[in-house]
Specification:
Layout (H helix, E strand, L loop, with lengths): L9 H16 L3 H20 L5 H30 L2
């Protein structure tokens, strides 16, 4: 990857979003822990292979978290609008 194409890391965004969803879907704490370990491995490997630097990975993960919060806010707002006053 070219250096100017690396910010933010979409590898980190998709991986973080997958890990967030796994916490909702997976019920057992060991499954959640294994999924987060897998996600951490992906985040580390993107830096180890020099596809991204730490700033790219952190900003990509932050982008995923903010996207999840925004989506939850819109869904909650939409539910209130459909329910009425």
């Amino acid at each position: 990857d070219l250096p100017r194409n690396a910010f933010p890391s979409l590898h980190a965004s998709v991986t973080t979003l997958s890990a967030i969803v796994s916490c909702i879907v997976l019920k057992h704490w060991i499954a959640r822990l294994l999924f987060w370990a897998w996600a951490a491995g992906i985040l580390w490997s993107t830096m180890a292979t020099r596809q991204h630097v730490l700033f790219d990975v952190v900003s990509g993960a932050l982008l995923a978290c903010l996207s999840w919060i925004a989506a939850a806010w819109f869904i909650k707002r939409r539910g209130k609008a459909e329910a009425g006053p």
